[in-house]
Automatic annotation (TrEMBL):
The keyword Disulfide bond does not apply. It comes from Novosphingobium fluoreni. Residues 12-23 have a biased composition (Basic and acidic residues). This is GMP synthase (Glutamine-hydrolyzing). Residues 41-205 form the Glutamine amidotransferase domain. It is an enzyme of class 6 (ligase).
Amino acid sequence: MPRYLVAQSELPEERANRRERAGKSAGETYKATLLQLSPRADVTIVSPADEDAPAYSQEELAAFDAVFLTGSPMHVYRETSEVARQLMFMRAVFASGTPSFGSCAGLQVAVAAAGGSVRKMPQRIEAGLARRISATPAGKDHPLLTGRPGSWDALAIHGDEVEALPPGGVLLASNEATQVQAAEIRHDRGVFWGVQYHPELALGEVAVSLQGQAEDLIEAGLAHSEEDVDAMSRRFTALHRNPEDRALRWQLGVDAETAEEDRRRREIINFINHAPALRNGG
């Protein structure tokens, strides 16, 4: 029975807000996804950024088969006590040798913990979908991206991005909006695989996220009005309910890589399959 640790960087109020909007915190979404993929797994959720969060020793972290870092509104480049606690946790994960995976802010936390840098996106945010992601030469044969076509779209919603990978970082995928869409990081005794997009999310959760950030999307020029955002959100919700609907796929401009759950989750599935070989830098 695998033991997984899910580390969510949402703060208590952010977790409560997400539960009210989407029914789950980011950590609870990850746990649900992992249990669907590995029904016998023992999944623990922790919140390292919280002021009263228990500290995990390297030995305690090494008892887990893998660590997963969630997305969140956390801005890793801000010097706050919450960010400092999250980075300290990630450095302990690297030192423990336990393989780790993260998406969105999870990737950014791993990058910053290993000595790279994160910034606010200078041009535009990605919201709903990250378009035309393509593997780099290093990514084409990397097991994280096994099964992905030459170019694909993925669920995404972020206004921050990786500015520079740390030493030991390998760029695996990019698109026009964000250079670092997927990466491997080797630091201390650990190996991290991560993506800027969200393979753990359901289409319905993206619909809720879009509605919750309508003002930001309008300000960023991605929508003209709240009605535009609502219309896009309704399409995501409808495709969530009926992923085979060809008309909805056409309206959103997506294919099976986005519409079908197993294909959206490729990176998580690939990581789970390879995690035992990644322990202690393997």
